[in-house]
Each structure stands twice: as C-alpha cells, then as structure tokens.
Amino acid sequence: MALILDGKAVAAAYKAKIKAKVDALAAQNITCGLAILLVGNDAASRIYADRLVKLATGLGVQAVVRHLPADATEEEVLALVCELNEDDHIHGILPMMPLPPHLATDRVAAALAPDKDVDALHPLNAGLVATGKSRWAPCTPRAVMAILDYYQIDVSGKHAVVIGRSNVVGKPLAHLLLGQNATVTVCHSKTRDLAALTRQADVIVAAVGRPALIGPDMVRPGAVVIDVGINEVNGAVVGDVDYDAVFPIAGAITPVPGGVGAVTTVMVVEAALRSFGDL
Ligand code: NAD
C-alpha cells in the first residue's frame, strides 16, 4: 500500500510561507502583482486562470487576467506582453498555454521580461534551467520537486523515468532531477517499450495527458509514482496513472486531483514573488 503524497499538505506549507512574505511586503506598502495572459476561449484555461486569481487574491497577491480574443494578432499579444513588462505593479506574467495556433509560442515567450517570466518560458530562463544554473524553473516541475522534498524522498543515485518531454514539464523536470543527482530517462511518444523502462524506475513521473497510461504491470513494487497528467473522463478529473490498480504496488503515489496540480497553482503565486527574493 502506497504512501499518499498529499499535494494539499505541500501546498499548505508553501501558502504559509507566501503569506508571511506578502505580509512583510505589505508592511513596506508593497503589493505583489501577477498578470495572467489569456488569449482565446479555451474553457480549461479560463477555469485555471480564474482559480489562480482566487488563490493569489486570497494570499494577498493582486492577480489579474488580461484577456485577448482568439483572433488577436501576434502584434496585439506582443504589445500586451510589452505593456505588462513595463508595468511596475506587475511582478509576474503567466501566458496560458496553449496559445491559439496562429500565434508563435516561441516569440511570445521571448518577449517576456526574463525576471517576470513565471513559467521560465523565456529562452534565457530555459537555458539556465538546462544548465543547472537557475534557482528558477517552470511551476509544474518545481511542484514535483517540492512534493519529493516535502516527503524527504531523496532521488540521488535513483533511476527516475520521466514520461513526457514538453518544454514546460518533462524536459525541465529532467534537468531538475539531474540536478538532484538522479539518473534520468526521458520517455515520449516515440519511445519503444515504455513498460520495460518504467519497470526499472525507482521514481516514475507521468506527464503525458493519457488516462491509465501507467498500469500496475509497469510499476516496480515500492516505486514512487508522481502523476502530473490531467484528463477528464466521464466528467471526472483523472491523471495518467491507473491509481486504484497502482496504489497497492507503489511505495508512494500522488492522487489526481489533490496531487501535483494543487502544488503547481501555489508555485505560480510564489513565482510572482520571485523579484522580492526567496521565500
Ligand atoms: P504536451 O502535450 O506538451 O506533452 C505530452 C508529452 O507526452 C509529449 O512529450 C509526448 O511525446 C508524450 N507522449 C504522448 N503520448 C505518449 C505515449 N503514448 N507514451 C509516452 N509518451 C507520450 O503536454 P504537457 O503540457 O507536458 O502536459 C502533460 C500532462 O500534464 C497533460 O495532461 C497536462 O494537462 C498535465 N499538466 C498538469 C499540470 C499540473 O499542475 N498537474 C501542469 C501542466 C500540465
């Protein structure tokens, strides 16, 4: 039976630190500002953005959604990024992904002021993460590392298998795990015999977006299983791991919901406070 890695408990610990920081800034008449850039009408992005605003506001960070229509031109999006870059009341900017297909994600990322770049999308920040020189990283990989840290799961010398190689989750997470001296294997849609690799893993991180991709036959007894995936199945939110079947085998496992996602949202708010130093 696995230890349940409770994202809400990890989030609560971070919220307390955030609140202390916000209160210290308030004593100096400083209010931290977070801008969420939402282009188009993707329902999931809208829900996520509203959730972030509620969380940030509750913690005393002023959060605002800046919404542009789905047919906004690249010039309009870049102009808004520029405006937010120059706004002294805004300390963090998070563009909701994916952007509508006619917009070049790379150019929007490169337009962000690197020190306001909440999800480390700017190539400078991505490069620093890849070279292990950054104290920063995208929010979801940081959430995974925060869960491991909270539960004192040492990955040094362990084999971590990361499934998914996106620039915002899989790749930066692989770098963070390497930075903690894990031996990292990154798997993706073209990986042959995924199960043969996951069965060798001490730590499995699934970040794909496919329900029940990781079944019990793919998990070595006692392995740590971190489920980043968010999928909707029959109106319910599930991860990439067949939770009920893997639970009796794994040594530790994150639930969905209440796992990585619960910590990621808090990491976004924390990121907005970055310009005021570490928590
Ligand atoms: P993405 O679509 O950019 O990347 C998915 C990755 O999965 C790709 O690298 C692809 O190669 C790989 N993949 C696809 N099919 C595969 C297969 N059959 N076997 C192995 N690998 C396969 O997605 P993303 O932005 O990295 O997000 C991944 C998942 O994590 C999604 O479900 C997303 O909703 C979720 N997510 C959760 C959080 C959170 O806070 N919990 C945050 C961000 C993303």
From TrEMBL:
Keywords: Amino-acid biosynthesis, Histidine biosynthesis, Hydrolase, Methionine biosynthesis, Multifunctional enzyme, NADP, One-carbon metabolism, Oxidoreductase, Purine biosynthesis. It holds the Pfam family THF_DHG_CYH. GO terms for molecular function: methenyltetrahydrofolate cyclohydrolase activity; methylenetetrahydrofolate dehydrogenase (NADP+) activity. Its EC number is 1.5.1.5, 3.5.4.9. HAMAP family: THF_DHG_CYH. PANTHER family: C-1-TETRAHYDROFOLATE SYNTHASE, CYTOPLASMIC, C-1-TETRAHYDROFOLATE SYNTHASE, CYTOPLASMIC-RELATED. It comes from Thermosinus carboxydivorans Nor1. Residues 138-275 form the Tetrahydrofolate dehydrogenase/cyclohydrolase NAD(P)-binding domain. This is Bifunctional protein FolD. NADP(+) binds at G164, R165, S166, I230. CDD domains: NAD_bind_m-THF_DH_Cyclohyd. Pathway: One-carbon metabolism; tetrahydrofolate interconversion. It catalyses: (6R)-5,10-methenyltetrahydrofolate + H2O = (6R)-10-formyltetrahydrofolate + H(+); (6R)-5,10-methylene-5,6,7,8-tetrahydrofolate + NADP(+) = (6R)-5,10-methenyltetrahydrofolate + NADPH. GO terms for cellular component: cytosol.
